[in-house]
Design goal:
InterPro entries: FT20 (IPR028172)
Structural class: mainly alpha
Keywords: Cell projection, Coiled coil
Largest sheet: 2 strands, antiparallel
GO cellular component, one term: intraciliary transport particle
Number of strands: 2
Pfam families: IFT20
Subcellular location: Cell projection, Cilium
Helix content: over 70%
Low-confidence stretches: none
Oligomer: single chain
Order of helices and strands: HEEH
Length: about 130
């Protein structure tokens, strides 16, 4: 015991195999345990970095997909607007054509009425001419 105390005072210790050590066996064991905990912590950090990396990659992919869908939606909306404008222009053209045809119909109706009146006048003239003979 006294020899161990003297050695302990000099900073020398015996381990469980009775080998002479500079470090106190308990300190050495705590150091080894700390080293293992540090390794485990580093492994967890590396794993965490991998998870975060894959998460960032996934978010980037989703952002690109969302941007692509947004562009498709904008394209579709612009296409619909241009189709609506085309339809509007077509409708205006057809309305103008209808108005033109109505005016033409009115001219034909007036011309027809005039021709009917002329025919009636001529028939009356023919009848009078025949009766005079």
């Amino acid at each position: 015991e006294m020899a161990q105390a003297a050695l302990g005072a000099a900073g020398l210790h015996f381990d469980e195999l009775n080998k002479l050590r500079v470090l106190d066996p308990e300190v050495a064991q705590q150091t080894a345990q700390l080293r293992e905990e540090c390794r485990a912590f580093l492994d967890k950090i590396v794993e965490f970095q991998k998870i975060v990396g894959s998460l960032i990659e996934l978010v980037d992919q989703l952002a690109k997909a969302a941007e692509s869908e947004k562009m498709k939606a904008i394209g579709a909306r612009n296409l619909l607007k241009s189709i609506a404008k085309q339809r509007e222009a077509q409708e205006q053209q057809l309305q103008a054509l209808i108005a033109e045809k109505k005016m033409q119909l009115e001219r034909y109706r007036i011309e027809y009425e005039t021709l009917c009146k002329i025919e009636a006048d001529q028939n009356e003239f023919i009848d009078q001419f025949i009766f005079q003979k």
